[in-house]
Automatic annotation (TrEMBL):
Reactions this protein catalyses: CDP-N,N-dimethylethanolamine + a 1,2-diacyl-sn-glycerol = a 1,2-diacyl-sn-glycero-3-phospho-N,N-dimethylethanolamine + CMP + H(+)
Cofactor(s) named in the record: Mg(2+)
Cellular component, GO annotation: endomembrane system; membrane
Gene3D superfamilies assigned: 1.20.120.1760
Record family assignment: Belongs to the CDP-alcohol phosphatidyltransferase class-I family.
Transmembrane annotation, as ranges: 36-66, 136-154, 166-189, 220-237, 258-277, 289-309, 316-335, 355-377
Protein name (record): diacylglycerol cholinephosphotransferase
Membrane topology: Multi-pass membrane protein
Keywords linked to the UniProt accession: Membrane, Transferase, Transmembrane, Transmembrane helix
Pathway per the UniProt entry: Phospholipid metabolism; phosphatidylcholine biosynthesis; phosphatidylcholine from phosphocholine: step 2/2
Transmembrane listed as a keyword: yes
């Protein structure tokens, strides 16, 4: 059981808090959502974000059909469908909160669903993006996964400690998603191979003489890494600053909060080490590995959100990090033996047994995350007397609301 009995009363005290400084959201998207799109949904419909996630699943299926190796060009309509599907997901996700407010169904379960689906979408969108840019089974794909998951983890960690979801002038859920939609739309006309061309040359821009040749010849995909690294560094600094300020305002120590970054970064110290020692995973079976990492990440994020909703201690431990550490240690033993003469024999031995282990880890992660979702959702629904995917107590405007004692 993931929620202690003593913590259930805190669910009724939950109040959603968010700050959105995005100009695009304020002057373009929100008027579109509230004045038009939200009225397409009946008042009986709940958890629109989960419905919108179906568009992402369709996008993933077309990717796996036309470009399972992430390095081939697809028909133009495939990329166009990715742009439309992702925009619809963003729209459904944004309308979910408005729908909850107009049906008087706002609550902690909606927050859990919203973040949980967004966490899964983040991983799947990395795979789709890699397919759009023809990144292939490469380190660039892994770096893109790290940056995307890290930005999401920082936002969740920050919300736990500050109680507020902060979206700046430029944020992933708004401008980041729209940028991806634009990338997919351009790819529909140019093809995925376009992004592997040197950027300056493709744009017809002059190459400054002071730039090193390696910079002048960098492709769009490589410049994407540079851009992503800068944005990620900014997010780390900004989130850390917000958490530090919030802790100090409550006269609480900062160190325990900063320690909450350890579960993510410790895992991501092991992941590249494991892949570098078992290159067959990287170059041949990266997709099940990414899905395993994504499920493990969604589980960790789910634990943090649940702790936030119930005002429980921060979850520093993720049981799904153990298979990652075990796989890394198994591959590290023979390496240390060869280099230092000190080590241990690999149990898996590489090859098919390593791949079987990755598939087993994927199955384990789906089982653990699935059991977490079922347990938490069931218990929240039972305690709050609500249904999961439909509205149990429809809002009646003429009936006075009962006060919660």
């Amino acid at each position: 059981m993931y929620i202690r009995q003593s913590k259930f009363p805190n669910l009724r005290k939950y109040q959603y808090s968010a700050v959105d400084h995005s100009l695009v959201s304020r002057y373009i998207l929100k008027p579109f959502y509230t004045n038009f799109f939200i009225h397409l949904f009946p008042l009986s419909m709940a958890y629109i974000t989960l419905s919108g996630f179906a568009f992402v699943i369709v996008n993933l299926l077309t990717l796996l059909w036309y470009n399972p190796t992430l390095d081939r060009d697809c028909p133009g309509w495939v990329y166009a469908s990715w742009a439309v599907g992702l925009f619809l997901y963003q729209t459904f996700d944004a309308c979910d909160g408005t729908q909850a407010r107009r049906t008087r169904q706002s609550g902690p379960l909606g927050e859990l669903f919203d973040h949980g689906v967004d966490a899964m979408n983040t991983t799947l969108e990395v795979v789709i993006f890699a397919g759009a840019m023809n990144l292939g089974y490469s380190w660039i794909t892994i770096l893109t996964l790290f940056a995307s998951l890290c930005a999401f983890y920082l936002t969740t960690w920050e919300e736990y400690h500050t109680g507020t979801l902060y979206l700046g002038l430029v944020s992933g859920p708004v401008e980041g998603v729209l940028t991806l939609c634009a990338v997919y739309a351009v790819t529909a006309f140019k093809g995925g191979s376009f992004w592997q061309r040197p950027m300056l040359e493709a744009l017809g821009l002059p190459s400054p003489g002071f730039l090193a040749p390696v910079l002048r010849d960098m492709s769009f995909a490589q410049w994407h890494l540079v851009y992503g690294g800068i944005i990620l560094a900014f997010n780390i600094v900004q989130s850390s600053h917000n958490v530090t300020r919030a802790r100090r305002s409550k006269n609480l120590p900062v160190a325990p909060a900063l320690l909450g970054l350890a579960p993510f970064f410790t895992t991501w110290l092991a992941i590249p080490l494991w892949l570098s020692l078992r290159l067959e995973i990287l170059h041949e079976h990266i997709l099940p590995f990414i899905f395993f990492i994504g499920a493990s990440f969604a589980y960790q994020v789910g634990l943090i959100i649940t702790a936030h909703l119930t005002k429980s201690p921060f979850p520093y431990f993720n049981v799904l990090s153990l298979p990652i550490l075990a796989g890394t240690l198994d591959a590290l033993g023979p390496f240390l033996q060869a280099r230092l003469g000190l080590g241990w024999t690999s149990v898996l031995g590489g090859g098919p047994y390593t791949i079987a282990y990755v598939l087993a880890c994927l199955g384990l992660s789906i089982g653990v995350y699935g059991s977490f979702v079922v347990d938490v959702v069931t218990n929240i629904c039972d305690y709050l007397d609500i249904w999961c995917l439909s509205i149990k107590h429809p809002y009646a405007p003429n009936v006075p609301e009962k006060k919660v004692e």
